[in-house]
Amino acid sequence: MNTVAALAGRVLLAILFIVSGVGKLFDLSGTNAMITAAGLPSGLALPVALFELLGGLAIALGFMTRLFAILFAGFCLLATLLFHRNLADTMQATMALKNLSIAGGFLCLFAHSQMRWSYDSMRLARKGEIATREAEQRTREAELRAARAEGHASALANGQTVPVTDTTYVTATDIDGDGVVDRPRRKWWSVG
C-alpha cells in the first residue's frame, strides 16, 4: 500500500507541473509579462515552461527523480520569494503556503525516491541482478577449478598419469584488491 501511495504522490506532484508547463507554453507572452512584472528579465518564459513540462514528465516516470525533486523544491521556494512576497495579502499568503507545501512534498520525494514503479528503481534492481549473476558465475568457476584440482591430486595419488592440459593465462587487473577482476565501465554515452 505504501508503494501505491508513493506512486500516487509522485504522479500528483508531477501533474501540477506538467499542466503548468503546457499552460505556459501555450501562453508565452502572458507568462513573459508576468515574469517581467516581477522584475525579472524577459525571455525566461520558454525555459521555465520547458523545465516545468520536462521535469514534470521525468518525475511522473521516475526518471532522475532525486535530481528533479530537489530542483523543483528550489524552484517552488524561489517562486515564493520572487512572486509571493506580500504576505499581508491573503491570496499571496495562500500561494506562498501552497508553494512551501509543494516544496516540502518534493523534499520528501527526494528523501524517498527509490521506490517501485520508477525508472530509477528498475535500474538499481537490474544492477543488483547482474551483480548476483556475476557472483554466482565466479562461484561456479571457483568450484570447477577446485574439482579439477581435486581430481588431478587424486589421480596423482593413485599413480595414474594425468594429461597435461594447455593452460592459457590471462592478465587480469584487480585495482581495489577484492579478488574480482575489474572491468572498465562503459560510459553512459557510448553505444553498445
UniProtKB/TrEMBL annotation:
A single GO cellular-component term on record: plasma membrane
Localization per Swiss-Prot or TrEMBL: Cell membrane
Transmembrane parts of this sequence: 7-26, 38-60, 67-84
Database matches in InterPro entries: DoxX, DoxX-like_oxidoreductase
Keyword annotations of the record: Cell membrane, Membrane, Transmembrane, Transmembrane helix
Record's bilayer topology term: Multi-pass membrane protein
Keyword Calcium included in the entry's annotation: no
Family: Belongs to the DoxX family.
Protein name stated in the entry: DoxX family protein
